[in-house]
Write a structure and sequence with these properties.
Layout: H1 3-21, H2 39-47, H3 51-66, E1 71-72, E2 75-76, H4 82-91, H5 101-114
Helix pairs in contact: 2-3
């Protein structure tokens, strides 16, 4: 083993320890840097991955869902892609907001029923 292998291992250990020490950002849809509703950008930012990877994953899941396969492993494919994106859009709050669309709707319904 030469000295460069030891330096590479040490650099990898430092990089992995820095990644572990960084707290995850809260899951919220950003106002800037989004294409549709910001779901892919929110997931990418939360897990610290490139947004293109998340967008491609949504596209693949959507295409697989339209192929007519009833199951992909044990996951029902008809619950994938577009319905998943819509559910995330409704459940992930927008940046700067306290509540998601669904929780805001629920709070409004509760307030009306109390009146």
């Amino acid at each position: 083993m030469n000295s460069t292998d030891g330096l590479q291992d040490e650099a990898q250990d430092q990089a992995s320890s820095q990644q572990k020490s960084q707290p995850r950002r809260p899951l919220s849809r950003p106002v800037k840097g989004r294409m549709l509703a910001g779901v892919a950008a929110a997931i990418a930012r939360h897990f610290n991955v490139d947004v293109t990877i998340v967008r491609v994953a949504f596209a693949v899941v959507t295409i697989v869902g339209f192929t007519g396969l009833p199951f992909f492993g044990s996951v029902p494919v008809y619950l994938a892609g577009i319905p998943l994106y819509l559910a995330c859009w409704l459940l992930i709050p927008e940046e700067g907001c306290e509540h998601s669309i669904v929780s805001g709707w629920i709070h409004a319904r509760q307030d009306r029923s109390r009146s």
